[in-house]
Amino acid sequence: MEVDVPGPEARVAIVTGAARGIGAAVATRLAQDGLAVALLDLDEDRCAEPAAKITAAGGTALAVGVDVSDGTAVDRAVQRVADELGAPTVLVNNAGILRDNLLFKMTEDDWDAVLGVHLKGTFLMSRAVQRFQVEARWGRIVNLSSISALGNRGQANYSAAKAGIQGLTKTLAIELGKFGITANAIAPGFIATDMTAATAARVGADFEDFKKAAALTIPVGRVGTPEDIAHTASFLVSEGAGFVSGQVVYVAGGPKD
Question: Would you please indicate which residues are annotated as catalytic (active-site) residues?
Answer without folding.
Answer: 158
